Amino acid sequence: MTIVRETLLPPAPPPRRTGGPVGWLRDNLFSGPGNTLATLVVLAGLALLLPPAIRFLVTDAVWSGTSGEACRPATAGHPVGACWAFIGDKINYLVYGSYPAAERWRPNLFFGLVALSAVWMLWLDAPKRGLGAVFVFLVGPILSVWLLSGASVLGLAPVATSLWGGMLVTLVVSLVGIVAALPLGILLALGRRSELPVLRYACIGFIEFWRGVPLITVLFMANVMLPLFLPGDLTVDRLVRPLVGIALFASAYMAEVVRGGLQAIPEGQGRAALALGLTRWQALRLVILPQALKVVVPGIVNTLIGLFKDTTLVSIVGLADFIRVLEAARADPRWSAPTIPATAYAFAALFYLAVCFSMARYAAFIERRLAAGERGRS
Amino acid sequence: MDRASGRTRPRSGGRGARGGRRVPRSPRALALQALVALALAALAYVAATNASEKLARQGITAGFGFLGRSAGFDISQRLIPYAAATATYLDAFRVGLLNTLLVSGLAIGLATLIGFAVGIARLSPNWLVRTLAATYVETLRNLPLLLQLLVWYVAVRVALPEAQRPAAWGGAYLSQRGLVLPRPEFSGVAWLVPAAVLAGIVLSGAWARRRARRVEAGAAPGPIVGPALALVLGLPALAWIGLARAGHPVPVAWPAPGPYGPEGGLGILPEFAALLLGLSTYTAAFIAEIVRAGLNSVARGQGEAAAALGLSRAKTLALVTIPQAMRVIVPPLTSQYLNITKNSSLAVLIGYPDLVHVFMGTVLNQTNQAVEVVAITMAVYLTLSLGLAALMNAYNRRAAPGMR
Fold first, then answer.
1. Which residue from A10, B25, B82, B388 puts its CA 20 to 30 A from B177's CA?
2. Coil, strand or helix: which one is B295?
């Protein structure tokens, strides 16, 4: 018996293509009957939804005009989508609220300061980040208050907070939230891990209380109860009341994020620091906190996103934040046209989406970087 | 050294409940704690005296007596009898609380359904489905809930037909005034129908337990979804038909178009619909991420082994992957349920009469009993939060202890 083949086999057909566009399509969209059906259903849905959306946002949109008249189908001569002329006309109101036009350089400078602080804090390899922290949490807030509300020392005319509005107020509320919540949250997280029962239970009670109630009740409480608790005829500015509520509320959430970071640091780190002769305070400041805070940067940014979205609630208690100013602009009879509400909400959606999505991307980037660092170490 | 530890051990053993954590007893630690306690007490004292002084000046008597006073305002949606003329503030509180519970409960169910669907879709082998699900999550998660509620309530509602010319569909009417459905009246012998629903649920539970026992005993698991659906839907249908045959048909109030909009029937407020849809689609985006993380946490080999055994993708998910993922999914899911309950307070924006709108809004404005109203409202939410958390912790203890 021989096992040697004497004739040449006919060449086998090439294997199924797995690379290239065709292979990709087959693998990802048409790999089976169910899959093909899903693809077709989604494509049909997109064909139904996308063209109207594009028509609304771009092709049928009205880009210029001075009143709602321009955004009526009768005047425009075609079905009207978004009325971007409305946003263009109102943009100063949407950004600054009723802040006096002559003083608008002050909010602009404030935006500049915020951008500088944000880059300083978020760019991990920025020079002198320690100095940046002092700036962001101490110098920056004082400068901003002077700049925005006026300071006779600097020769700046006072501007009542009732005139502030729009994105300016949204930004101020979020920044007060984060600038107050981060230090407070760190203190609360440390207190919750303290060995002293009175301190620990006080912190647990504080954190769980704020995390257990809705923000809107906190804002109502700040509005009606804060003035009651203060002595004599001391009144609190209408802008400051919700800020106090937001700061306390956000600090409870921040405390839980920071606690997660503290728990991620092995106990040996603190013990080693003590063994080297560091005091408990030094061990905390030089060894534990730097590591713990680095781990929770994504968590902090996610809390910040939540805080930024939650600032919209201050419109319910009467602050002229971006949403409230937008609703006021929408109600302007000069700009009454059928698509004005949809235009306003589309603009707001783009604004919030841009800010929150970029923050979320940043958090994901840091997370990847931290994960890479972990892999590199082990 | 030995003596020192011998001295401390009985003391720390005495407080074993704290997991053996040693409580420092040094004078410095005691002084610090006394200082903290003193500061908190002083803060509370100053706040309380200031508040009582100011309330006295405004002529408001502290206490909960105001709950018995007549409310005198109407509420647009109520699950229990409530008449503006005779109802007290306590009744208004009850109505608001029930409305909050209703919308939160329904939103929890709906958000879980959408969230699981989107979360599973994010891991679909189909690129289009995967991308669509990711777009859904990234968009809804990054927009404030308040803006989404405005879109549902204002922008979507204007696209609906006017109340005078509602869209009709099989006895139901949809218009800018909301959705009106035919309402069966379960009075008289008709109570058998809701009773049949309850019986169906109880029997399904019994069937599931019997099935679980059979699986423990090594038998093949029988069907569950089909029998449960048949019991929960079939029994009431049987009762309905049986009653009709026996000459006692269940009376149904059919809505009819009137001059100002549909009249009669079971009305669903546009505020309620907007809040329910907004809450559930928003939270579903977060639940989808939780579900995705949970499914990813299950070892790849589990799914591959199930596929090798010949299970379809749906069966693999339902029988192998999701049950194992639940241990990872449930804890964060709980906090999303809590978020739904808390976020339902945004109802105040669009005028749905929930607890915050009715009690912290109208009642607070009418009575000026700020301290009591705020305290009661916050106590309700705290109770709901802590109660749900305790419930889910109990579930976790049952479901979590390791893999079998």
1. B82
2. helix
Contact B280, B110 (CB under 8 A): yes
Confidence band (pLDDT; 50, 70, 90) for A104? confident
Per DSSP bridges, beta strands B183-184 and B178-181 are unpaired
**Amino acid at position A185, single letter:** G
Q: Locate B210 and state its tokens.
A: 């019997």
Residues of B in contact with A228 (CB under 8 A): 50-51, 54-55, 370-371
Q: What distance in Å separates the CA atoms of residue B13 and residue B11, rounded to the nearest whole number?
A: 5
Q: Provide the shortest C-alpha distance from residue A273 to chain B (in Å).
A: 20
Mean predicted lDDT score pLDDT of chain B: 83
* Burial letters B263-275, b for 16+ CB under 10 A, else e: eebebbbbbbbbb
Residues in Cβ contact with A377 at an 8 Å cutoff, skipping those fewer than 6 apart: none
Q: What is the DSSP letter of A19?
A: S
In chain A, which residues have their Cβ closer than 8 Å to the Cβ of B349? 316
Distance between B3 CA and the closest CA of chain A, angstroms:
23
Angle (deg, nearest 10), helices B192-216 and B235-245: 150
CB A320 within 8 A of CB A165: yes
Measured CA distances, B275 to A168, B37, B46, B81, B283 (Å): 28, 43, 40, 23, 12
pLDDT of residue B149: 94
Give A166-232 as a 3 state SS string.
EHHHHHHHHHHHHHHHHHHHHHHHHHHCCCCHHHHHHHHHHHHHHHHCCHHHHHHHHHHHHHHHCCC
Distance CA B360, CA B92 (A): 11
Residues 6+ apart with CB under 8 A from A311: A170, A173, A174, A177, A246, A321
Q: Is B253 helix (H, G, I), strand (E, B) or coil?
A: strand
The verdict on B44 touching A (C-beta cutoff 8 Å) is: no
Q: List CB contacts (< 8 A) between B381 and chain A.
A: 212-214, 217
Q: Judge whether A231 is closer than 8 Å to chain B, CB to CB.
A: yes
Strands B172-175, B256-257: parallel, antiparallel or unpaired by DSSP?
A: unpaired
Q: Which residues of chain B have pLDDT under 50?
A: 1-20, 402-404
Cα(B270)–Cα(B156) distance, integer angstroms: 10
Where do runs of H (alpha helix) occur along A124-166?
129-134, 140-149
Where b means 16+ CB within 10 Å and e means fewer, B7-18 reads eeeeeeeeeeee
Measure Cα distances from A7 to A12, A14, A30 in Å.
Answer: 15, 21, 39
Q: What pTM was computed for the model?
A: 0.85
pLDDT in tens, A148-191: 887 777 778 888 888 888 899 999 999 888 889 999 999 999 99
What is chain A's mean pLDDT, rounded?
Answer: 86
CB B75 within 8 A of CB B92: yes
Q: Sort strands B266-268 and B178-181 into parallel, antiparallel or unpaired.
A: antiparallel
Find residue B172's DSSP bridge partners.
B169
From chain A, the residues in CB contact with B154 under 8 A are: 341, 345
How many helices, marked H, and strands, marked E, lie in chain B?
17, 8
